[in-house]
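Structure first, sequence second, as always.
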């Protein structure tokens, strides 16, 4: 759940998940529809399908017990180098590095790394530094390269609520160290207006010395955003609404939605959508307009409502009562349309 999602967003989802599917076994056996409903609103739904595949693999290969070695964790579906390192270090106190957005920001500023961290060579350098740091956290006497030794003081102290991480007692030092790196980036070394005056390593920070805090990390030019526009139709007949399930292999696959079609970004009104869906002559009224973002796309979704007293259009999907719709997992934008229907 924490992949690409903030902790404050995840917490209520995690609590609900643990009430419904508290074990690896229950997650492995759960109905996919239930999985998607529990995940509804978190986005990146491939994650929840990989979660179930991982649970099934753990049962098949590890007798139902979560593996504790880095390689075995990495072999689970949906888990890459960063997630495997986070689990191995935080849960099992092993000296494996992590490198997420917060950690990249901290390391590029402390070490004054001006190259783009997304480039292969620079990214590999950051992984090496992160690895040397977490290994050094296990030792009373700090080791590593000259560059690492010069900056291996405790990265987060009592001022930020996390104890110093390079300590004589190393029973949880890897766990504390990696969490401290992430917390330093999340709470102090912010993307904009970093709180250098309260940072415990400000005296060692190359970016602060050279006044490069706002320039680092150097992520290159931002990808230009693209405007996209969709028209959706909320069709009602005899108290039921037409919905359809998105196929596997596309964005928001397996989720439910109201019939919709992409139209020109500058096009206004529902006419083009009606033509493409075979709804010519349909009398409809605007129900709501929803704006949201998926990666680099800025999406506008206009939903039009129409009551059909005489006939149902020959469109694929299912006609369902509102009570049934509530049990389905919708994409975030179409969930908002459903909420508009409930509010009427």
């Amino acid at each position: 759940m924490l992949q690409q999602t903030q902790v404050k967003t995840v917490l209520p989802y995690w609590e609900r998940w643990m009430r419904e599917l508290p074990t690896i076994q229950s997650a492995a056996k759960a109905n996919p529809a239930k999985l998607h409903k529990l995940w509804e609103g978190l986005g990146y739904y491939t994650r929840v399908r990989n979660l179930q595949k991982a649970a099934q693999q753990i049962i098949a290969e590890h007798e139902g017990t979560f593996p504790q070695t880095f390689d075995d964790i990495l072999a689970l579906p949906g888990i890459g180098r960063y997630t495997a390192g986070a689990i191995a270090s935080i849960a099992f106190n092993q000296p494996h590095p992590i490198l997420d957005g917060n950690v990249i920001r901290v390391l590029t500023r402390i070490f004054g790394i001006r190259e783009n961290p997304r480039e292969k060579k620079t990214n590999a350098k950051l992984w090496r530094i992160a690895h040397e740091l977490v290994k050094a956290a296990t030792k009373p006497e700090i080791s590593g390269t000259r560059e690492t030794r010069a900056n291996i003081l405790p990265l987060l102290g009592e001022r930020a609520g996390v104890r110093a991480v390079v300590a004589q007692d190393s029973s949880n030092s890897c766990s504390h160290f990696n969490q401290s790196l992430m917390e330093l980036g999340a709470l102090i070394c912010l993307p904009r207006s970093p709180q250098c005056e309260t940072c415990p390593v400000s005296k060692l920070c190359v970016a602060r010395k050279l006044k490069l805090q706002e320039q680092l990390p150097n992520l290159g030019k931002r990808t230009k955003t693209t405007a996209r526009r969709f028209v959706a139709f909320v069709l009602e007949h005899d108290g039921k609404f037409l919905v359809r399930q998105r196929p596997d292999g596309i964005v928001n696959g397996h989720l439910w939605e109201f019939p919709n079609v992409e139209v020109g970004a500058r096009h206004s009104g529902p006419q083009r959508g009606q033509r493409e869906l075979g709804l010519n002559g349909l009398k409809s009224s605007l129900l709501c307009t929803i704006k949201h973002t998926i990666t680099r796309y800025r999406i506008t979704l206009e939903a039009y409502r129409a009551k059909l007293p005489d006939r149902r259009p020959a469109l694929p999907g299912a006609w369902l009562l509102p009570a049934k719709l509530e049990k389905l997992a919708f994409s975030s934008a179409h969930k908002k349309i459903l909420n508009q229907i409930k509010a009427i």
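Margin note: The longest strand covers residues 226-237.
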